[in-house]
Amino acid sequence: MTDAHKTAADTTLRTTGGAPPGDGVAAPEVPTPLLEPRDGIPPVVADQAALDEVVAAFAAGHGPVAVDAERASGYRYGQRAYLVQLRRAGAGTALIDPVGCPDLSGLGAALAGTEWVLHAATQDLPCLRDIGMVPDRLFDTELAGRLAGFARVGLGAMVETVLGYSLEKGHSAVDWSTRPLPEPWLRYAALDVELLVDLRDALEEELTRQGKLEWALEEFAAIAAAPPPAPRKDPWRRTSGMHRVRRRRQMAVVRELWTLRDSIAQRRDISPGKVLGDAAIIEAALALPGNTRALAALNGFGNRAGRRQLDQWQAAIDRARALPDSELPQPGQPVTGPPPPRAWADKDPAAAARLTVARAAVAAHAERLSMPQENLIAPDSVRRLCWEPPTEVSEETVSHALAALGARRWQVEQVAPVLTAALSATVD
After folding, report:
1. What's the Cα-to-Cα distance from 19 to each of 22, 55, 209, 366, rounded to whole Å?
2. Could you tell me which Pfam families the record lists for this protein (predicted)?
3. Of 172, 174, 290, 317, which residue is 20 to 30 A from 19 by alpha carbon distance?
């Protein structure tokens, strides 16, 4: 590490979200631009021989490993990784092309038992898992920042606030499937892991100072142990603007157009939005056009010159129009939890009163702890507890209910007394 980097890493962090400031020197008011990786931009690893060298180097390295991944969201179908960046003491920085090296399970095995440092881990773990990289344990610098009370927890903001460096973020939304990747993009990618371990160390120190490190470790362990998310049921229901679609026949049009668009996008490996926008799907569902001429007059279709394209969209609409009523989608998905809180006052006034008091109590405790309410306890857990509280309200029964809803041990310890008091004040 250069002297400049070491100075930044050794600086005591300055929090911005209400957490008590550290006792040492705060990060500089004017951050220093970080323009180049300390070891330069490494060559992109795109073949097995080069990958084998990286695996050996990182297996021989020491300490935590910084990991990041770049996707091509908005450009390509799905969320696959198009670049993986790593940095570890004793190994340096590596930039790996998962297109040329689609199986990184050997690298994942070489890092077994090593702590991975990621920023917003849940965003990158799915695409890393797809190429064989799954951490045994991790440290999430974004989540650590939330628990420590930072108001801004993006990587650039955290590096600036904690370490006194500014990162250039101009390439975060580029098409990472581009080949070859331009040098400025590679520089940006290498810098994303340049100070990630330094940031981790400073945040660990701050969490320890605030008495929150064990809480953070519980959260990190839960992320690492979480199974892959199950596929969404009826993903077409998440089409933007779906709230405008009321009739079942119209819902069938959304389903048919969404399904066709998805198959085209997958086949062409482009973002579904580049095939047909959500707004166009909703417009077609509301209008129920009977022919391609009427369809072409709708927003989102008229600029898609080409009879063949209009024909395929109209065919999907016609399929929905021809469905018997028994095959039309139902208005909503089955509800397994409590109704939306806005309906509670009419359905169960007592539950609505409990929720109001409980939310206020949780908010006050989260403010005392200098962390977002949603990190203190999942809002859905509070709603479910207030909708169906234990028959006998006590700290023991509330603790048991929270644990059954998936709350971590530290969350139960912090929230159970607060919610017990709130429910005791309002429960019948």
Report:
1. 9, 40, 11, 11
2. DNA_pol_A_exo1, DNA_pol_A_exoN, HRDC
3. 172
Q: What are the beta bridge partners of residue 118?
A: 140
Residue 335 lies in a domain: no
φ/ψ of 151, rounded to 5, equals -75, -35
Beta bridge partners of 94: 86
Reduced to 3 states (helix: H, G, I; strand: E, B; else coil), residue 320 is: helix
Q: What number is the average pLDDT over the span 135-156?
A: 97
Q: SS3 of 11, please? A: coil
Q: What does the pLDDT look like over 58-68, one tens digit per residue?
A: 999 999 999 99
Question: Domain check: are 199 and 81 in the same one?
Answer: yes
Domain CATH code at residue 266: 1.10.150.80
Query: Residue 25 burial by CB count (10 A; 0-12/13-18/19+): exposed, middle or buried?
Result: exposed
Model confidence pLDDT, tens digit, residues 91-115? 999 999 999 999 999 999 999 999 9
> Is residue 305 over pLDDT 60?
no
C-beta atoms surrounding 337 within 10 Å: 10
Provide the 3-class DSSP secondary structure of residue 22.
coil
pTM beyond 0.85: the answer is yes
Question: With 60 as the cut, is the pLDDT of residue 18 above it?
Answer: no
Residue 218 reports pLDDT greater than 90? yes
In the DSSP assignment, the letter for residue 342 is G
Q: Please indicate, yes or no, whether residues 308 and 355 belong to a single structural domain of this protein.
A: no
CB atoms within 10 A of CB 282: 24
The verdict on 52 and 129 lying in the same domain is yes
> Distance between CA 83 and CA 96 in Å, rounded?
6
Report the distance separating Cα 105 and Cα 93, nearest Å: 18
